[in-house]
Here is the input.
Amino acid sequence: MTSNPSNNGDDPKDPLSEMFAKLFGAEGAGMDPAEIAKAAGLPSDPNALAQMMQQVQAMMSAENEGPVNWKLARESARKVAASDSDPSVTPAQSREVDEALRLAEMWLDPVTDFAGTGLMGRAWSRAEWVEATLPTWKRLTEPVANSIAFALTSALSEQVPEDMKAMMGGAHSMLQNMGGALFGMQLGQAVGALSKEVVGSTDIGIPLAEGKMALLPANVRAFGEGLDIPESEIRLFLAVREAAHARLFIHVPWLAGHLLGAIEGYARGIHIDMSRIEEVAREIDPTNPESMQNALSQGVFMPQRTPEQDAALVKLETTLALVEGWVDELTAAATVNLPSAGALRETVRRRRATGGPAEHAFSALVGLELRPRRLRDAAALWAALAEERGIEGRDAIWHHPDLLPTSEDLDDPAGFSSRRQLLEASDTEVDEALQKLLAGGFDEPSDDADTDTGEDENGDSKDGRQDS
Here is the structure.
């Protein structure tokens, strides 16, 4: 029996020899590992190879359900989330979060027409946030993730030396796994990094954990560092924002699908820069698995967008701005008696406008920034509508996507109602004409039919002659 490299046998097998024996069977077992390593640019030292193989074993052997290794994405996200300590939520923290979210619901009641959600407030660790939100991240990133995994597989196949391609013909699945694993690991790192920045389940303006309302105590505490504001006030302010998001998405059932669908549509249109992919593949150092992850962080997308994508992006950013502007306006109204509300509102606005390092890393990876660039304009619009139409009239705008303000309305919030009146009047005229047509009203003689016959009221013709 052949010795295993993990044994203490007298003649342990070289890890590269073992790998090719597994890949190619008896034919692979007869390959010269030194020549293979030289051709592939790999180290010939068995110890260095063993260390490298431990790092990439999962990428080469894991069976994926699709082009992307989501299992590795999850493991990578959890590892990053716990890298700077991620203690479990204590009973006291759970109680504080629950009380803050309950009070937030009460404060929101007078300032919106949408009723309370009845959701139980949750306190999450970063790892719990990862578990709760990963299915949504998968939905958001899968279209572009599949494209990247395919491109990486093709690029890695091209990097195989010519004199090895014949024997590598049966290892295409290995390269597929590696491409999917590369993206999965990088996505997991981005999501794990985000878990250190977000304070709730709706921080980026979309419901990452549908039907849930939560805060992350560790991140709430970090949010307040340097603000010189009591942590209880910060927690309550952020709880009001979280509860406002939850009300909006629960009472406007089409909104989550509208946003997620727009993001998915935009992602499908992203063009992968194949030359950049090839460059990334060439930069990967086989002896340094971390180089695989670092290379991807540079971004692999063409900077130019199509006109269709530009239009989709404007629509997406407008909807995100409307969501965040509505939440911003409601939070300001609900927390008017909170001493630090003004300072916290400005802090959140700046945070949403600029984004943190993790958000930038995520946008570089998937080619999309979930940023409400026009949050202030949207908040001004919602404030104007509340003053003009009242709370009920303002919130009624959310009843149908066709009623939502456009980017033009964000340019001129004061003119929204007049433009909407013209539109509604035009629609009304069309409806009336259609109803009359369907009822046969256009076939009936009009009231001035006598004028059309050329006769006066006595039956005399207008030229003064009488009919015989």
In short: The radius of gyration is 32 Å. DSSP finds 20 helices and two strands in the chain. Residues 126-159 form the longest helix (34 residues).
